[in-house]
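Figure 6 in text form: structure in, sequence out.
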C-alpha cells in the first residue's frame, strides 16, 4: 500500500520521529542523575549558557530571497562579517608574531654578538622580546580558536535550520526516493564536516598560507640574491610535488569516499535484514561479503596514507636540500663579504619554518576535501525544488463546502509508468465515498492527489471548483484531514499528539474528542491520563488504540474534508465496533474519501468507487452496485465467501 510513512499533513503523520532522547528521558530510562561533583559545574555551565530568544521563526512554503542564495562557504560566512574580520585579523597578527623570532635572532647576533658589537643589553632585550612575542602569539591563538569556534557553531546552527526548513518544504516524492539515512547523514556528518572545516581548516589554511608568504617576503627583504637563489631552487620542485600530491590525494579521497559508502550500505542492509539473513543462514556469506567491502575501504585508506607518506618526507627532504644549497651559496656569499653571518642564520631559521606549514597542511588536507564535498552535497540538497510547490501568486483557499472534483486526472510516480489514467470523479459536499479495489490499483494514489501530496501529470483536481494548484498549501491542507493507515505518533503525551493538528486546542475539546473516539477507558487506565507519555511511535498502544488516537487527532483538526486510509491489519471485533462508531461521528457533515479495506466500511459509505488498473471501473451506492452485479458485486461475494477479511485481497 502506498501510504506507508507517507502522509504528513493535516491530521496525519510525518517523516521523522520526534526527539528520541526527550522521549527516553520521560519514558523513565534508568538514569542515576548528575553526580554531585559534576552538579556545580553543570549549574555554572547552565547559568553561563546563552539564552535563546523566543522563537520568531515562521515557515513560508516559498523560500525567502536570502534562503535562495547559493550555498557557498563565503556566503554562509558573510552573514557574520564582524567575526570573519576579527578571525582574519587575528590570523594575520599570529602569523607576524610567530615569524618575529628569526629576525630577533638575526638582530641579536648582528648587534649584540658580532665582533665590535658586543652588547649584553641588546642580547637580553632580544631574548625578552622573543619571549614576549611567543607569549603574545599564544594568547592570540587562544583568542582566534575562540573566535573561529563561535563562528563555526553559528554558521552550522544557521545551516541546520536552513536544511531542516528545506526538508519541511520538500514534497513526498523526495522522501520516498531519498533514503532517510542519506538525509540523516546530510544533517549529521556533512554539517559536522563543515563545522570542522570552518573551525580549524579555514583558519589553518589561511594561517599557514600567510606564513609562507610572510617568510618569502622576509627572505627577500633580508637579501634579494640569496632569496632568489633559494626560491629558484626550492619552489619549482615543491610545486611539482604539490601538484602530484593534490591529484593523488583527490583520487584517494574519492576512492575512500565511494568505498565507505559501500561499507555503510552493506552494513545497513545486513542490520535491517537481519531476520532474513538468519532465516536463510546467510551469516557466513554476509561476513565474507563484508570482509570484501571493508577490505576495499582499507585499501583506499592505505593508498591515501602512502600518498601522505611520500609527500610529507619528500618536502622535508627538499627542505634539507635547500639548506645544503643555502650553506653552499650563503657560505660563499659570506666569504666574499656579500652577506653577514647573522643574516645567513636567519635564512636558515626561516627556511626551516617555511616547510613546517606544509606538513600541517598535509594533515588538514582531508578536512578541506571533506568540507568541500559536504558543502557541495548540502548545496545539491538545498537546491532541490519541491515538486509540489506553491505558485508565486497562490491565493488563500476560502472555507470550503467540500466538493472534490477529479477532472480527467492522470498520474504516475514515474511519468513513463502511469498509475492513474483519465480519472473523472465528483464527490459532493458532505458525501462519504469509499474507494475499493485490488492492492496496487491506485486508490491511495488518487487520494494523495486530493491534498496535493502529488500533482497530477494531466488533468485537474478541484475543491469547490478551485484548482488546488492555485491556492496556498497551508490554506489547502488546513481544511483537509488525513488519517493514515499506520498512524504516526510523536514523542510526547497523548495530549500533544491529539492537539497536533491545530494550535490552541482546549482541554475540553480534547476530552470531548477522547469520548467521541471511545478512548475514555484507555485514558482512565493510564497513570497520568492524557498527559501520559506515548512511547516511541506508540509501540505500547494497540493497533486499534493508535487508530482511535489518529481519528481523535483528525476530529480535533475539524477538517472540511477527511481522507482516511483504513488499517489493513485486522482489529479485534470490539475495536472494530468502537472505530466504526468513531468514524460515524467523524464523518458527520464532512466530505470523506475512505480507502476501504473492509467491505463493511464500504457498505456504510454513501457511494462506492471501484478502482482497478488506475481507472474508475464502477461508481454507485452500495445497493446499486450490488444490484448491477458487476465488479463490486463479485468482490462482495468473494469477500463474504472468505469470511469478511481484507477486501483488497478479494480481487475483482
Ligand atoms: P492502492 O492504494 O490501490 O493499493 P497505490 O495507489 O498505493 O495502490 O499504488 C498504485 C501503484 O503505484 C502501485 O503499483 C504502487 O506500486 C505504485 N506506487 C505507490 N506509491 C509509490 C511511490 N511512492 N513511488 C512509486 N510508485 C508507487
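Output sequence:
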Amino acid at each position: 500500500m502506498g501510504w506507508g510513512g507517507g502522509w504528513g499533513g493535516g491530521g496525519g503523520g510525518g517523516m521523522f520521529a520526534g526527539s528520541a532522547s526527550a522521549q527516553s528521558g520521560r519514558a523513565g530510562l534508568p538514569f542515576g542523575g548528575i553526580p554531585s561533583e559534576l552538579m556545580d559545574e553543570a549549574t555554572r555551565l547552565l547559568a553561563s549558557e546563552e539564552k535563546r530568544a523566543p522563537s520568531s521563526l515562521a515557515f513560508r512554503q516559498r523560500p525567502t530571497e536570502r534562503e535562495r542564495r547559493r550555498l557557498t562557504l563565503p556566503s554562509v560566512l558573510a552573514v557574520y562579517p564582524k567575526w570573519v574580520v576579527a578571525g582574519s585579523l587575528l590570523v594575520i597578527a599570529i602569523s607576524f608574531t610567530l615569524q618575529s623570532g628569526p629576525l630577533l635572532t638575526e638582530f641579536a647576533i648582528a648587534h649584540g654578538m658580532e665582533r665590535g658589537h658586543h652588547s649584553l643589553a641588546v642580547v637580553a632585550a632580544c631574548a625578552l622580546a622573543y619571549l614576549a612575542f611567543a607569549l603574545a602569539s599564544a594568547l592570540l591563538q587562544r583568542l582566534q580558536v575562540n573566535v573561529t569556534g563561535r563562528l563555526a557553531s553559528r554558521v552550522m546552527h544557521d545551516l541546520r535550520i536552513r536544511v531542516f526548513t528545506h526538508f519541511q518544504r520538500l514534497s513526498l516524492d523526495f522522501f520516498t526516493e531519498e533514503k532517510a539515512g542519506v538525509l540523516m547523514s546530510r544533517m549529521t556528518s556533512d554539517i559536522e564536516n563543515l563545522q570542522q572545516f570552518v573551525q580549524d581548516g579555514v583558519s589553518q589554511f589561511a594561517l599557514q598560507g600567510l606564513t609562507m608568504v610572510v617568510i618569502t617576503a622576509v627572505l627577500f627583504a633580508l637579501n634579494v640574491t640569496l632569496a632568489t637563489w633559494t626560491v629558484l631552487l626550492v619552489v619549482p620542485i615543491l610545486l611539482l610535488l604539490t601538484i602530484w600530491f593534490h591529484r593523488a590525494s583527490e583520487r584517494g579521497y574519492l576512492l575512500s569516499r565511494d568505498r565507505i559508502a559501500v561499507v555503510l550500505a552493506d552494513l545497513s542492509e545486513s542490520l535491517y535484514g537481519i531476520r532474513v539473513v538468519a532465516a536463510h543462514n546467510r551469516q557466513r556469506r554476509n561476513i565474507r561479503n563484508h570482509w570484501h567491502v571493508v577490505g576495499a575501504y582499507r585499501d583506499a585508506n592505505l593508498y591515501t596514507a602512502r600518498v601522505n607518506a611520500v609527500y610529507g618526507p619528500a618536502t622535508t627532504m627538499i627542505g634539507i636540500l635547500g639548506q645544503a644549497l643555502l650553506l653552499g651559496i650563503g657560505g660563499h656569499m659570506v666569504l666574499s663579504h656579500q652577506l653577514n653571518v647573522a643574516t645567513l642564520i636567519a635564512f636558515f631559521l626561516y627556511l626551516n619554518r617555511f616547510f613546517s606549514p606544509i606538513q600541517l597542511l598535509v594533515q588538514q588536507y582531508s578536512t578541506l576535501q571533506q568540507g568541500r564535498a559536504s558543502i557541495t552535497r548540502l548545496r545539491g540538497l538545498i537546491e532541490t525544488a519541491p515538486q509540489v510547490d506553491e505558485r508565486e501568486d497562490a491565493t488563500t483557499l476560502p472555507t470550503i463546502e467540500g466538493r472534490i472534483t477529479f477532472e480527467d486526472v492522470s498520474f504516475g510516480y514515474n511519468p513513463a509508468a502511469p498509475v492513474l489514467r483519465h480519472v473523472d470523479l465528483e464527490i459532493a459536499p458532505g458525501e462519504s465515498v469509499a474507494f475499493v479495489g485490488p492492492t496496487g490499483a491506485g486508490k491511495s494514489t488518487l487520494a494523495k492527489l486530493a491534498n496535493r501530496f502529488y500533482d497530477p501529470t494531466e488533468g485537474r483536481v478541484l475543491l469547490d471548483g478551485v484548482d488546488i494548484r492555485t491556492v496556498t498549501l497551508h490554506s489547502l491542507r488546513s481544511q483537509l484531514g488525513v488519517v493514515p493507515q499506520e498512524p504516526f505518533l510523536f514523542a510526547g503525551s497523548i495530549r500533544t499528539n491529539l492537539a497536533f493538528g491545530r494550535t490552541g486546542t482546549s482541554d475540553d475539546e480534547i476530552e470531548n474528542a477522547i469520548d467521541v473516539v471511545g478512548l475514555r477507558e484507555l485514558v482512565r487506565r493510564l497513570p497520568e491520563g492524557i498527559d501520559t507519555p506515548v512511547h516511541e511511535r506508540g509501540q505500547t498502544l494497540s493497533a486499534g488504540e493508535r487508530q482511535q488516537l489518529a481519528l481523535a487527532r483528525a476530529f480535533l483538526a475539524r477538517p472540511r474534508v477527511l481522507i482516511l486510509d483504513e488499517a489493513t491489519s485486522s482489529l479485534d471485533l470490539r475495536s472494530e465496533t468502537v472505530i466504526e462508531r468513531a468514524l460515524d461521528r467523524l464523518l458527520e457533515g464532512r466530505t470523506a474519501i475512505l480507502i476501504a479495506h473492509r467491505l463493511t466500511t464500504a457498505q456504510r459509505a454513501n457511494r462506492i468507487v471501484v478502482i482497478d488498473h488506475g481507472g474508475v471501473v464502477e461508481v454507485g451506492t452500495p445497493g446499486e452496485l450490488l444490484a448491477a452485479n458487476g465488479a463490486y458485486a463479485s468482490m462482495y461475494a468473494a469477500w463474504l465467501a472468505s469470511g469478511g477479511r481484507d477486501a483488497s485481497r478479494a480481487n475483482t
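Caption detail: The chain has two domains: 68-382, 404-651.
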